[in-house]
Amino acid sequence: ETGVTQSPTHLIKTRGQQVTLRCSSQSGHNTVSWYQQALGQGPQFIFQYYREEENGRGNFPPRFSGLQFPNYSSELNVNALELDDSALYLCASSLAWGQTEAFFGQGTRLTVV
Amino acid sequence: DAKTTQPTSMDCAEGRAANLPCNHSTISGNEYVYWYRQIHSQGPQYIIHGLKNNETNEMASLIITEDRKSSTLILPHATLRDTAVYYCIVRDRSNSGYALNFGKGTSLLVTP
User: pLDDT: is A100 or A7 the higher one?
Assistant: First the structure.
């Protein structure tokens, strides 16, 4: 079975721009979550998608949005980028909603200049 | 979800057992204890979880005290590849979704 894959691995954007990060979940997993990890900190929960619907959200502003597609892959979109958005963005997939054993991708390192 | 407290860092000699403690004194009856680790530049990796009984798998053992206010993750024979940040997370599986509340974790350094 394939694992969770994220693209791109690294990205540099300018303040004010928009960015889209992509995630392919592990085969058969219908739940995807996104996390932001600032340098030296633990990952922070952004939101979760189950069967193409957002069903949980952390303390992040609306300029952080997402999508989940019928094949359960997902996108994270961030508008009006700020310098503090520079972080490692992690995607995690799970076999079913409510199951907490999550499988993480390697992440996308976003730098905002 | 209950808050956890872990030491900031620990050292362990290669081949020895690594015992990583976690305090979760406000844990409630429905909350499980989960452990994940994050090796540098990689995504977090699930290790083990438990409710009240001790658990063991191919990676580690989890010892939960009888009052469930603390637990210990044991890596029986630590190797250099076990150097990572270890996160103890307490989670109510009946809540919606599976948002994992990572703290800062324990940075484990395994030395030759």
Answer: A7
Q: Which of B43, B46, B101 sits opposite A107 (nearest CB)?
A: B43
Task: List Cβ neighbours of A62 (8 Å cut-off, separation of 6 or more).
Answer: none
Give the residue from A65, A100, A66, A22 showing the smallest Cα distance to B102: A100
Rounded CA separation A68/A22 (Å): 10
Residues of B in Cβ contact (< 8 Å) with A48: 97-99
Touching check for A102 and chain B: CB below 8 Å?
Answer: yes
Residue of A nearest to B91 (CA): A100
Provide mean pLDDT across the span A26-53: 91
- HEC string for chain A: CCCCEEECCEEEECCCCCEEEEEECCCCCCEEEEEEECCCCCCEEEEEEECCEEEEECCCCCCEEEEECCCCCEEEEECCCCHHHCEEEEEEEECCCCCCCCEECCCEEEEEC
* Strand positions, DSSP E, chain B: 9-13, 18-23, 31-38, 45-50, 55-56, 61-64, 70-75, 84-92, 106-111
CA of A61 vs chain B CAs: smallest distance (Å): 17
| Ranges of residues in chain B whose predicted pLDDT is under 70 | 1-2, 93-98
SS3 B79: coil
